[in-house]
Amino acid sequence: MMARACRSQKQIKWVRSVDKHFLPNRVEPRFFMAVPYVFINVGTVFLWLMKNHVHKLIKQINKHNSFRNNCLNLVTSENLMSPLTRLAISSDLGNRYTVGRINHRWYAGNHYFDKIESTAANLARKLFHAKYVNLQPTSGMVANMVAFYALLQPGDLLLSLRTKDTGHYSHAKNNLLSLFGVRVASLPFDRKEFTIDLEKAKKTIHRKKPKVVLLGTSEFLFPTPLKELRKICDHTGTKILYDAAHVAGLIAGQTFQDPLGEGADMISTSTNKTLSGPSHGLVACKNIKQYRKKIERALVPMFTSNHHAHHVTGLAITLAEFEKYGHEYAVQVIKNAQALAQALYKFGLEVICPHKNFTRSHTVLIDVKKSGDETMRLLEKANIIVNSFQLPWNKISDQTGIRIGTNEVTRLGMREEEMKQIAKFISDVLLKRKSIKEIRKGVIDFRKSFLKMYYC
User: Fold this and answer.
1) Cis omega before residue 392 (within 30°)?
2) Which has more confidence, 72 or 394?
3) CA atoms of 453 and 456, how far apart (whole Å)
4) Among candidates 401, 368, 406, 342, which has minimal Cα distance to 165?
5) Does residue 452 fall inside a structural domain?
6) Which of 193, 201, 203, 356 lies most in the core, judged by the most C-beta atoms within 10 Å?
7) Could you tell me if 237 and 102 lie in one domain?
8) CA 173 and chain centroid, separation
9) Cα separation values, 159 from 189, 208, 218, 277, 354, Å
10) In percent, how much of the chain has pLDDT > 70?
């Protein structure tokens, strides 16, 4: 007789099979007969409860997958990995430790992974026009920390955009940089042109003589005037760090700008967003002699240990796919962003920078003139996924921006014509032309035609 913890024959059969596998030395069944309903095998109960938790978790995962497959996923920092990339991530490499450099590991058994990481680094060097690439940062934030360590000393001055001027919070005064003892001052921003104010930046750099100028934003609409900044920084011996997190795929696709070729000393980036790889990071530069040892010292043992071999392997697949399809994909991403912005503007929404054709990247910005967070939640009810954002003229407590990206829908094969329909869905929600229920049904029906992945 089994303990009362198992209430069905199916559960009893499952528990017996699990017990046989995991608990070979369990108490003999005859002991249960001697003390019926009193003795409870703790291992059996635990495994049964675990089974219930697993079922619940899988149910939530399936619900999430179904929901997102029925949504217009327009978050600028999200994308879809290819089937081969996902297969690589699920490989045995996810179980392994790969601490150390290529061919110089702290653990045995990594000779195949050495070849994988070497191939990935070679591909990244080609796509980013670098002489040295390190793929061991486990995220964009870690890549930033590595770059800060390589370029800065405690007490040095760094210029970056404020978060309210589209800068990332890891570039801000009282966040990550404070851990390095670095002083931070603001890089002037032109709110009308939505880029760095070059004239004011020139005066600031000449006056303050910073050690590093940090470029890159969370609302990356247009290429940065890198060539001009390089000339300015040469007068003060200032280094340029380019955070490419949002536009790495556009750079690798040769459609945005060439940071290292235009004067940046180093690139730090995440690898998901427009690059469509796993959540990971990389650092790239041209001056191997000056930076390689500093970058490697920063990674092990300072900021990483095991650097997630399965993600590096998935990234290798992504980079190989980008070598073949990246340019075509990046061109279409930008075309889609411009088409979406134009359509939203025609529907009467206040899209940022109409005088510059709105965008040269994957990003479209709208000022909704009311709570961006409430607007984001309203769009979510219609299965349209975006995120709210602070615009330069907003107060921290009064964010009115909505940030939209075309990187994921482009992966699904959508083109300019589909952007017009997406703009209509969004404007119908924001201008209250139809009920949310009706719009959501339209979105779900629309998505049924776009389930295949392209550019891989």
Assistant:
1) no
2) 72
3) 7
4) 401
5) no
6) 201
7) yes
8) 22
9) 12, 9, 16, 30, 29
10) 89
The last residue of one of the domains, among 319, 346, 374, is: 319
- pLDDT-derived band at 407, boundaries 50, 70, 90: very high
Residue type, 6: C
CATH code of the domain in which 423 resides: 3.90.1150.10
Neighbours of 144 (CB within 10 A): 26
Do residues 423 and 302 both lie within one domain?
Answer: no
Domain containing 373: what range? Answer: 73-80+326-447
The mean predicted confidence, pLDDT, of the chain is 89
Is 428's pLDDT higher than 60?
Answer: yes
pLDDT, residue 38, reads 41
Same domain, 129 and 231: yes
The answer to whether the beta carbons of residues 399 and 329 sit under 8 Å apart is no
Say whether 129 sits in a helix, a strand or coil: coil
Q: What share of the chain is helix, strand, coil (3-state, %, to 5)?
A: 50, 15, 35
Calculate ∠ Cα 245-250-252, nearest 5°.
Answer: 90
Please check the confidence at residue 16 and state whether its pLDDT lies above 70: no
Say which CATH number the domain at 119 has.
3.40.640.10
**67-94: per-residue pLDDT in tens?**
999 999 999 999 999 999 999 999 999 9
**Distances in Å between the alpha carbon of 343 and those of 127, 380, 393, 419, 444?**
32, 20, 24, 8, 21
| Separation of alpha carbons 69 and 408, rounded Å | 12
Q: What's the burial of 8, exposed, middle or buried (CB within 10 Å: 0-12/13-18/19+)?
A: exposed
Residues 385 and 347 occupy one common structural domain: yes
Over the stretch 326-354, which tens digit does the pLDDT of each residue have? Answer: 999 999 999 999 999 999 999 999 999 99
Taking the C-alpha atoms of residue 32 and residue 447, their distance in angstroms, rounded to an integer, is: 56
For residues 41 and 293, give the distance between their C-alpha atoms in angstroms, rounded to a whole number.
56
- pLDDT at residue 98 tops 70: yes
Extended beta strands in 247-293, E state: 266-270, 281-285
Domain contains 4: no
pTM score: 0.88
| Number of structural domains the chain divides into | 3
CA distance 344 to 379: 14
Instruction: Give the whole-angstrom CA distance, residue 310 versus residue 97.
Output: 10
Q: Are residues 167 and 34 in the same domain?
A: no
d(Cα 17, Cα 30) in Å, to the nearest integer? Answer: 17
| Angle between helix 372-381 and 436-447 (nearest 10) | 60
